[in-house]
Amino acid sequence: MTDLPNMPSFESLALRPEQRCNKVFNAIIKTLLHNRNQWMTAMQLVDDCRKLDLAQLRGNTPRATIQGAISTGLSTARTLKVEPPIEKYKATYGVCYRISLSLFPKDSEVIASMDMNPPPDNVNQNPPVRKPRPKARKLTYTKKRTQTQVKNKKPPPKRPAIRKITQTKRTKSRQQLYEYTSESDSEESDSVDSESDDSATDESDTDSSDEQPSRKRIAKYHSTSEFTSESESDSSESDISMDTSQQVTNEPIPNDVEGFNSSLCTTSEPSNFDINLFIGPTSFAVAQEVGYSYARFRHQGNMRCPKSNCEDSFSIKDLKNSDGSFLCRLFCLADGHGGSGCSAFLTNKIPSRLENMLCQYDYSQLDDQKVQEKFKQDITLLIKRLDDEYLDAKREEYRKWQNDVIHNRGRGNQVEPVDDGATLVINLFFGEWFINVNVGDSRTLVGCKTDNKWMVEFSSEDHKPYLERLALQIYSNGGVFVDNQDKPIKFDPFPQERNVRANLKNARIRLQAADNDLGVPYKNNNGIHFSLNVAATCGDLLFKLNPSKPVISCKPDIFFEKLGPFTEYNGNRFMLMSSDGLFDHLYSNKAELQNQTIATCIGQQLDARCQLKKIVAHLCNREGDRVLFENTLQEYDDCTCILVLM
């Protein structure tokens, strides 16, 4: 569309990037500019948007779509605390809209020539014609049959007797897992459950009175019918396997860690690590749960099937100077995918490499921006060298395997290598400074208590394909964005003004051309390309076959914050670092809401003086809290949580 003379362009209007994300709202603004900002009704906007081909207004309620986009634009302006972009005028024939004059440039000549008067009420606006409602049909009643008609009517033929088959309990649908029963009823149900099922769950401790019914877990259930979908049966079985001590109540967490930990979860405290317990943050805890899935077939029951090994790896160490004195405390976490080799490699190599690098710095000089920039360059180069070292080792493994396949026809001792990768999170407590280094979608958040409320003070940004700064690099280096069904997603190669691309919200990354001489596999047995849902990793040779143009990079985000002495906070601030196994299973899928939910959950338990190892164990047990986590999933990823009081 070409703008009329003397009319400002859409780009020159005073709109924030957050206000330009809605395509329908942008079409409304451009339509009003095309009509020289005259007052227009919603139906007029619908007609002109379709004529100008600015928006695809489909469905039966296009006018409601226009009104909803305008309401969204006004609410966004209120959130950003800026002037409303649209003006309203209620006429007799409907509500009229036009662009707010505050959006135009101050020196624009259009404002002077614009008609400031409201639209006349006698204008024919061609309101939509509604079809008249059809009249109600009169009910007609037939005459009653006489006795002669009844006598003359032939009786229906007798059908053969059919034996009535009673439905057993197996054909009935499963009852609800929770019921509200009084204490007498609960005792009866418990006695029945103990006789019928030896694996009945224990009763949860409640403080309800005799008169008030208490919420009890009903372990006895009917199996699903043959018409029930497999996903429903799986979710029901996963619910039943959850221990009753994991119910969400308003009471503080009980003092029994085993009540929250499954056999797949382990916890660690500062005494389990070789660190100086008198320097730096000494109050922390670690919990790690191995990923697992539930059996796909009903005859296998609700048994958990754990993974062969945990792909998460972490390291907590004190880095020391050349003379053996304390230098800083390191918290490192790597979340592997495709295998555990890369994550273990990073957590083993990083402490010694960082120790050699940090010996060259004095934390008192980090106030200088030039020193911070030099620090960022050094640690970025350190991670890049570790990544190259691991990729070179993988290339050599694939070369040896290729030679074995060609010359020995696979009869040698060479095993097919595994192309794996890992995300990386490094948190350093260097003097009075807190330094965060992030690669991938593992996350670090810092929560603090202000005005008796726990808020998120800092959180790292997940490196996802929808980030504008990463999407352009991925596409230009040969990456393709696909959905979960491996279908390509249309991508605009021109830079966008917004920071996030909405159409890539759930996108994955794969290669355009993945044939290679090393024999790195790029398809699974079903012919589907291997893809990733993270836009920055270490390892992953398939996406870095061309070292000069890697599809996915390992460039980290680095954050500095001066904390001061640790004694002045009195436990009102904490740092949580976790793999995506925690955040991917929350009900909310927005990072801001996830961070605030976790910060509030941890803060409330800190106020209740719960032990740190119980808090991290509670977070890792994702089937134990129905308020935070979805508990109807078939598969659970590895989860590692490190909680530090600052």
From TrEMBL:
- Comp. bias regions, Basic residues: 130-173
Task: Please tell me the species this chain comes from.
Answer: Rhizophagus irregularis
Q: In this protein, which residues make up the domain named PPM-type phosphatase? A: 291-646
Q: Which PROSITE patterns does this UniProt record tie to the protein?
A: PPM_2 (PS51746)
Q: Which InterPro entries match?
A: PP2C, PPM-type-like_dom_sf, PPM-type_phosphatase-like_dom
Specify the protein name. Answer: Protein serine/threonine phosphatase 2C
Q: Where is this region: Disordered?
A: 112-262
Which GO-annotated molecular functions does the record name? protein serine/threonine phosphatase activity
**Gene3D superfamilies, from UniProt?**
PPM-type phosphatase domain
Q: Where is the composition biased (Acidic residues)?
A: 182-210
